[in-house]
């Protein structure tokens, strides 16, 4: 094949009509791009740690604090109550003791489960939000 | 409006002015759609694939360093997308020798094709080429891409691209010859 024929073929082909997509092609592409952009912005602006996470965390901290206060300062509280209401104080003290002896290590187990669940939810949130951003 | 360089629009898009991407879509939509149409053989699928290719290009625009031509990069995305889709659908990607290459193909005189029929004849002949050869001819002659650029699009080695392009060209001449003979018969 000589060079001249090659040039002619090039000229021929450059006059060839290409297939054309529908009239609204560019608009459709741009609309899809804008939709993807806004979805991406939404994902980026979405807080990784939602309201639910903070509520669970606060409840959990409150529960731990309550357990700590009750178990450490229970005797002091008993004595103060005892001074004010001797009979009622004794009753309360017995009630506390019996309540916590029945509970045993249950509060700690619940706390452990709550921590575990919170951490897993947190990890899942981070992974899913990152995968949406990179998708 | 004055036609600007691809890089101008790309920089604008990279700077956050997404609207400028529409100029790129306008500029390349026909060729991207033609490649998709040739491979998928269906207007709706081809349109969807072409759209997907542009969206993919937009999303990966930050990875475009400008060392190669933007068109080469875009065609590579389109070509890969189309081939993946063909594989996904288990369709046949024609790259086989369905057309026998005739010896006289090399001696064909293109001027022998009547001027009023040229565009039509070329299009008909191109339609008969297998997908990979159609892409090679389109990129080399229509888009004036170099062998190096085409090898980047098709992921073929440069020497393989040259060989395939040579064969595709001969095949195109054979098809044109046959078309012209048929036309001659119908006239007679």
Describe the structure.
The complex is a heterodimer of chains A (135) and B (188). The radius of gyration of chain A is 35 Å and the shape is rod-shaped. Chain A has helices at residues 3-14, 25-45, 51-84, 86-103, 106-134. Helix content of chain A is 84%, strand content 0%. Chain A is mostly helical and 135 residues long. Chain B has 2 domains: 1-99, Rna Polymerase Sigma Factor, Chain: A (Orthogonal Bundle), CATH 1.10.1740; 101-188, Winged helix-like DNA-binding domain superfamily/Winged helix DNA-binding domain (Arc Repressor Mutant, subunit A). Chain B has 8 helices and no strands. The N and C termini of chain B lie far apart (49 Å). In chain B, 37% of the residues are buried. The A-B interface holds A 1, 5-6, 8-10, 12-22, 25-26, 28-30, 32-34, 36-37 and B 18-19, 21-22, 25-26, 29-31, 33-34, 37-38, 46-47, 50-51, 54-55, 58-59, 106, 108, 110-111, 118-119, 122-123, 126, 137-138, 141-142, 144, 166, 169-170, 172-173.
